[in-house]
Amino acid sequence: RPVYHPFTFSIENNQREVVSSTLHLTGDRYEMDFDDLAEKAADPAVKLAILCSPHNPVGRVWNREELTRYAQICSENGVRVVADELHSDLIMPGRQFVSYGTLDERFLKDVFVCTAPSKTFSLAGLQTSNIIVPDAELRDELRLELRALGLWGTNPFGLVGTEAAYNHGEPWLEQVIDYIWSNLQYLDKFLKSHLPSMKLIPIEGTYLAWVDCRDLGLGGEALKSLMMDDARVYLDTGHIFGPEGEGFVRMNVACRRQTLEQALARIERAVNDQMGG
């Protein structure tokens, strides 16, 4: 952590214990703590690891070296991996996404690679996703578990939508990525010139901006109130992603520039009023 908060909900709702390996912010870049990961993976009670790649909310696109080290640790300790790759199509210029499924074959025996068109093409309402399980025995095990839960069949509209998006959506997606990247650059410049107490963590992938607001000196609820009640802008405050996210906010920049401009103007007024008071 910090990480996409429904992971925590899913673990706790299944009466399992959350074991978090904290990401470290070194300068303006988050990095995995492999020593900590190895220590926690060595616990026989740890059976499953969830990897968010690209990472939501910190925006890292893990490189092959990082993924290989992660895979080695999990493989050596018999820990299965769920690789959440839902933002894998949304990679910013100059970065390259590496799928867990392309790592060395010895790491693919115990992995579930999860993808979907939902984030890329805004098709979440079709409720269609993909779980890629390279190992045949593990794939059969997953099928049995899904049937036991009464989960079978797919949405036919979702199948058609997914096929159409993947076959015909690339030109549109390229334009979207350019637009998101432009919005991120605008956000970064605005914060530096108008709100220096708020800093954008460089985003390598996803359309989610992770903004460091710790210099405002506000706790989680106070920061939430500032954004929602004073600025009237609905952001995700960082504490919901785990205690490691305290003092941060997550902002969706997959929007019109006008919307982003209006939101930032509201935040600027609210922050200035707060600091002035």
TrEMBL record:
Its cofactor is pyridoxal 5'-phosphate. Gene3D superfamilies: Aspartate Aminotransferase, domain 1, Type I PLP-dependent aspartate aminotransferase-like (Major domain). It holds the Pfam family Aminotran_1_2. GO terms for molecular function: cysteine-S-conjugate beta-lyase activity; pyridoxal phosphate binding. Keywords: Lyase, Pyridoxal phosphate. CDD domains: AAT_like. Residues 2-267 form the Aminotransferase class I/classII large domain. The keyword Repressor does not apply. Its EC number is 4.4.1.13. Belongs to the class-II pyridoxal-phosphate-dependent aminotransferase family. MalY/PatB cystathionine beta-lyase subfamily. PANTHER family: PROTEIN MALY. This is cysteine-S-conjugate beta-lyase. The lineage of its organism: unclassified sequences, metagenomes, ecological metagenomes.
